[in-house]
Structure formats: C-alpha cells, structure tokens
Amino acid sequence: MTFDPKPIRWIELGLPHPHDPERMMRLKADGPFALRRFYFTPDRDAELELHLDERTQNGGLNGCLACGGKELFARKDFPPALGITIVVVAAVLAPFTMYISLAVAALLDFILYQTARESLVCYRCSAEHNGFAKEPRHPRFDRTIAERLKFGEKAVMGSPMREGGTANAPDPEH
Q1: If you placed Cys at 63, which of 29, 70, 74, 119 could pair as Cys (CB 3.0 to 4.6 Å)?
Q2: Three-state DSSP class for 118?
Q3: Phi-psi domain of 136 (left: phi exceeds 0; alpha: psi -120 through 50; beta: other)
Q4: Residues with Cβ < 8 Å from 86, sequence gap 6 or more?
Q5: Most distant CA pair in the chain: distance in Å?
Q6: What does DSSP say about strands 128-130 and 118-122: parallel, antiparallel, or unpaired?
Q7: What is the domain partition of the chain in residue ranges?
Q8: pTM check: above 0.85
C-alpha cells in the first residue's frame, strides 16, 4: 500500500436549480475528479447533468460545470454582511477610540480579504465553483463580457469576446 501525501481537497458547487434559477443548490465532493456526470435535485424533481469535460487534468476549470459556458470570473468568497458589520462597528466606536478602531477595521478587512478563498462564477448561469485548482487562471469580473453575454449583438461596448473563453485571460483594464 502506498501513501499519498496530498490531502483530499474538498470542492463545492453552487448550482442553479433547473426549474428555478434563482434558487441555488449546494453540492460537495472529495475533489474535482470525484464528481459524477448526473445528480438529482434535492426534491428529486429534476436531473442535473454536469459538463465534466470542462475540468483540466490538474483539477482546474476551463468552463462552467453547470452550463458548459466558457466565461468565468474570479471573486473572493467573502460574506459582504461581515465586511459591512466590521465597518459599522468601527465607525460607531471611532469617537471613543480616537479613531484607532478605523485603522483596526482596515487591517482586519485586509487580513480577511487576503485569506478568503477565491470562487469562480459563471457569467451565464451564476454557478459558483469553489476549491478547484488555480490554473487556468480566470480574470476578475468584466462588465463588457457580462453585457455581451446578456445583450448579444446589441452590445456595442468593449472588445470582441475572447475565443475559447476566459481561461488564462488578462484582468480587465478598468
């Protein structure tokens, strides 16, 4: 028996429900290669097919596992309510702490931002992909891509869509 020193890397998917896209379903697996091609919704009223061909050999993603779209963006997986709470508490305490609480809040915010994991989100269906390998790298949110996917040929802003999706694309210039 051989010992594999690599720990199991949990992945988590937030998938839109096939009948109600506003409702997200959570799916966890031992790693990117432990996923099955088909899953049932929690209420068993529909079957989900994952696009497993969008995985790379090293466990990264070229596209969305839910819809197969090639356009993904990276964002920090950080609850906005926590950030707002930190700022509000620091602002309330500011007069009593000679405004040191604002510096502490900024430092705490910086630390939380640096330690928060990255999540890949699909422009088309809003599916969330957590725990996958960082390569290929996907850029942060780009409004021109979102508008081109939403409005199609009517969108006149920005550069044309990148052939092959957002995998290893540069970050937007704005």
Answers
A1: 70
A2: strand
A3: beta
A4: 105, 108, 109
A5: 63
A6: antiparallel
A7: 11-77+117-154
A8: no
Compute the distance between CA of residue 71 and CA of residue 145 in angstroms, rounded to an integer: 8
Long-range contacts of 9-12 (CB under 8 A, 24+ apart): 9/59, 9/131, 10/131, 11/35, 11/129, 11/130, 11/131, 11/132, 12/128, 12/130, 12/131
Provide DSSP, 18-69: SS-TTSEEEEEESSTTS--SEEE-TTSS-EEE--GGGB-TTS-BSS-TTT--
Whole-number Cα distances in Å, 154 to 70, 126, 157, 166: 20, 22, 9, 21
With tokens 């051989």, the residue in question is 2
Q: How confident is the model over 58-91, as pLDDT tens digits?
A: 999 999 999 999 999 999 988 889 989 999 999 9
CA geometry: angle 137, 138, 142, nearest 5 deg:
155
Taken as a whole, the chain contains a residue count of 174
Residue with tokens 């199991």: 8
User: Quick one: DSSP state of residue 72?
Assistant: E
Angle in degrees, 0-180, between the axes of helices 100-115 and 80-93, rounded to the nearest 10: 160
- How far apart are alpha carbons 169 and 138 in whole angstroms? 6
